[in-house]
């Protein structure tokens, strides 16, 4: 019998089927990490932000951490790797809600929805805005993995030409063209929309510089839905103040929550979303759909789990 410790509690309609399906196992549920329960667990299920290095001294039995999130940058990676604890996550789970969020923002800007809402509040009949069309444009997706591929699939349905940039330059699904990340600068001038879905790693931190934005079209939309540290905040603020691009849509930031005194709040060419583009009423449901097959494997002695990660590389 394995002891499985959740540091969050799923809804009852999701929790009960889990308990029924794995009735021989010992499940512990909590709303925050408790070291006494952690000490009993072979398997930890967490969102990844509560586990600290000092907690591992109590986790003598811990063998597998299932992270119900795509990002693991707040976890004690070196300490986990030293213990040879297996880590897997829910990579790909965000692709549906995030794609819908990104598409909603793009269409809102193209079809001037913020202007429409503003005029409605003012009770004004005003046709002075200039809507544009999404079809026929080009989108450059930095990090065309599971999420980027889904974005590409939907954008292609709108007749958008998709360009992917990844580490290897190997062909990526739903990309009309794919290039190496090292060659990003030479392909930025092609794009009407630039979307970053990159994780936070040593290689991606402050990857985008002012020079990258100078290569973009003045009419470009830049969207960051990966991690906030892909671009230095002060650099991004200056780019927007200097109007090097038309607009930015940000869902992630170097410091979260975004401080109330950040100049970003006062700019009229940026849309600020509070890092919830992936949120959905189906989030935990989809997480468990990944966890349960891996748990069956684990209980059968298999260790080749879905979305198994290299904790030191960050993905």
From TrEMBL:
PANTHER family: 2-HACID_DH_C DOMAIN-CONTAINING PROTEIN, D-ISOMER SPECIFIC 2-HYDROXYACID DEHYDROGENASE NAD-BINDING DOMAIN-CONTAINING PROTEIN. It comes from the Bacteria. It comes from Solibacillus faecavium. Keywords: NAD, Oxidoreductase. This is D-2-hydroxyacid dehydrogenase. Pfam families: 2-Hacid_dh_C. Residues 103-276 form the D-isomer specific 2-hydroxyacid dehydrogenase NAD-binding domain.
